[in-house]
Amino acid sequence: MRLSNKTVRKENVILSNETVRKDKILSNEKVRKDKILSNKTVRKENVILSNKIVRKDKILSNKTVRKENVILSNKTVRKDKCSNCFLHNFKYEIINSNICKVQNDITVDIFIIIFSIPRNIANRNAIRKTWVSASRNNTANTRYAFFFGISSDKNILFQEAKIYKDIIMEDFQDSYQNLTYKTMMGFKFVTLFCNNAKYILKTDDDMWINLNWLNEYLRTNSQKLINSVGGYCFKSASPIRKKSSKWYAGFESYPSKKYPGFCSGTGYIFTNKTAQQVFEISRNVPFYHLEDVYVSLCIRQLGYTLEHIPGFRNGTGTNADLCRYKKKSVITWHKVPPGKLLKIWSKNCTQ
Questions:
Q1: What is the mean pLDDT of the chain?
Q2: Beta partners for 125?
Q3: What is the tens place of the pLDDT at every residue in 198-214?
Q4: Which of 43, 174, 298, 304 could bridge 278 with an S-S bond, Cβ 3.0-4.6 Å?
Q5: H-type helices in 165-224, by residue range?
Q6: Any idea which GO molecular function terms this record carries (predicted)?
């Protein structure tokens, strides 16, 4: 049977030139579940929005989000090398350029870079009374300083600096993501004002450091650190891709599957020469937010190695017996609160 152009049929619906059919699309402005007929199409499997494309399995434009990788227009994937791309040109807010100056026949065996934040006053005072007291207010063979960026509570540091003269602060924002800036700040300070120190130790303000056993290790193992950084070192490690992790690393910031290994930022040591070389080469190593990994990336560019030192401990154990901290097998211990630090120091132990 033939019907006019305006016909209703149970199987199909045809309305003059505007036709809707269950199994066909006869117009350029129709959307079908299994085809993409225009530049603005939504499909269950893929999402294509004009020139902004998101697809799970391919990279289709310069503005692409991939499940395994993230490349966003001008945000390029981090390279291993660059040319003067990371310049540490921050200015000092607080400085004491005399920390490593010596008189008579005194030599500086170790300069200690201690990371801190303004509110950790109790930590700093406990350290001054315990394991850096051997510095005798930065007049002996051991020298140290606490390092800071700027923060909202920075003003308390100005008064502290007048009293102890062991505070160094630069004008970058102090945060966990900026610890690499703080590290390069320490190495720059070494280069400018402490180039007479034999060794450089980097650590944090929640650490127990047994300087007696560290000095003994350096006396008997100095050759191991000629072209190495030593500490609690991981010879192999992988980036953490879980976004909720404190150590998260996106593909755009670190595309490789493996780190070159690294020594835990809780405590590592190397020669003054190596510290200065790391600072110098850092200008050609793109910024990376995990400071201990970044130092290792610089070490790799120098062609140097990692040296695991027995006694450098990355883990914690706050319930350990006080005398355990003083054993020869312990050089560093992480997450020791200031009250316990004072107890360890005053505890009379026999080896």
A1: 83
A2: none
A3: 999 999 999 999 999 99
A4: 298
A5: 179-193, 211-221
A6: hexosyltransferase activity
